[in-house]
Amino acid sequence: MARILWLNWSGGGNLPPSLGIARVLTERGHQVAFAGRPEMVPRVKTAGFRAIEITDAYKQVDRYPQGHFMTRAACYLTSPAVEEQVRSIVSTEAPDIVLIDAMFPAALAQAADFKQPTIVFVHTFVFRQLDMWRKLTATFDGMRQQAGFAALPPLDELWRKRDRVVSTSLGAFDAAPTPGWDLVRHVGPVLEDEKFAVPTPLPWPDSNPTPLALVSFSTGFEQRNVDKVQRALDALADLPVHAVATTGGIVAPNEVASPANAVVLNYAAHDPILHHAALVVTHGGHGTAMRAMRHGVPMVVIPGLAGDQPFVAAAVQEWGAGRALPGDAGTDAIRAAAQEVLSTPSFRRIATEKSALLADVDGAANAADEVEALLASQAQQTNFTGTAPKHGQRQQVA
């Protein structure tokens, strides 16, 4: 049994798959604790795991550039106060392995000094958007430097000096690997529902022949967009569909005007809806897109503010499994794309073909295998030499 510490960024697409992997690790007898910003704590506790609050998450936020939608996030993800608390937590917890979210530079920058092996978790594509990851990290570091703090290492150093980079995407869906990045492991999507996302009765019986459309945008507070939800609902209002919009608790159902053919819910499990759906209108979060793909449901993708969403949108369109629109697409454009996807059989056919690639993939179990393989490699090296290998001396495991 291993003690595992997860240094977490609780973004809408980051925490659910992390919880799914933690569930499998716990079922295998390991102990998993999460450390993260205050917003993370209730979600982790609800899932049944121990949560360690990084109380200094926003201690230095007043020094960061104000007025940016990611100001608070940048402070949490990069500030020296968080770095110091991360070091303290790792020292106190003394885990056997540390798992670190790819979007958490403050934690990644400290990992070189950890005695434990470390894995970076990327909850979307790696190679389709490697330059984007570099730019995103540089953007956060730029905000840190504007706050008056020393620069952090670039992404290549933050990721490639760890023991593994685990992507919860499918290798067949990503771009070809970049030379020199042999530490990346694709394990497949982890499509875990949080406890509050439960099967929810809809106003229409399953036998109703009217096509069902799911509208689901980001559940991250940084990407709250009432107008976007309204535009999607208005676009579907005149189409011969029933629409279900889930807002993830960041947009209240009473903030939007629901048309007669729609219902707006804070939370609902998506799998039962997708089982009957003909269309998904989404922001291009990797988890939502992969869940739609697993059910063979074509998409209209309207990217939000997260850096990976345009790449997910482009991939869906490239495959022919849906249409990609600009992030500011208006009602008419959304309606036209939805009509095209609903009326063109090839979109559903290709989405169904892609779903076959995901049918037998258990991303959570595969990710847990990677964690256990690194633990076993570390133990073998320690037994052979009498000392643990220095951090960054990767033991390659097939």
Describe the structure.
With 398 residues, the chain is α/β, with parallel strands linked by helices. It folds into two domains: 3-189 and 361-385, 3-Layer(aba) Sandwich (Rossmann fold), CATH 3.40.50; 212-358, Glycogen Phosphorylase B (Rossmann fold), CATH 3.40.50.2000. It has 14 helices and 13 strands. The protein has helices at residues 15-27, 41-46, 71-78, 80-93, 105-110, 130-146, 155-160, 226-237, 270-274, 286-294, 309-319, 331-343, 345-358, 363-385; strands at residues 3-7, 31-36, 50-53, 97-101, 118-122, 164-167, 184-186, 212-216, 242-246, 262-265, 277-282, 299-301, 322-324. Helix 1 (15-27) links the parallel strand 1 (3-7) and strand 2. Helix 3 (71-78) packs across helix 6 (130-146) and helix 8 packs across helix 12 (331-343). The longest helix has 23 residues, at 363-385. The radius of gyration is 21 Å and the shape is globular.
Q: Quick gist of this model?
A:
By secondary structure, the chain is α/β, with parallel strands linked by helices. The protein is built from 14 helices and 13 strands. Mean pLDDT is 91; it is low at 392-398.
Question: How is the topology of this model organized?
Answer:
Layout: E1 3-7, H1 15-27, E2 31-36, H2 41-46, E3 50-53, H3 71-78, H4 80-93, E4 97-101, H5 105-110, E5 118-122, H6 130-146, H7 155-160, E6 164-167, E7 184-186, E8 212-216, H8 226-237, E9 242-246, E10 262-265, H9 270-274, E11 277-282, H10 286-294, E12 299-301, H11 309-319, E13 322-324, H12 331-343, H13 345-358, H14 363-385
Parallel strand pairs: 1-2, 1-4, 2-3, 4-5, 5-6, 6-7, 8-9, 8-11, 9-10, 11-12, 12-13
Helix pairs in contact: 1-14, 3-6, 8-12
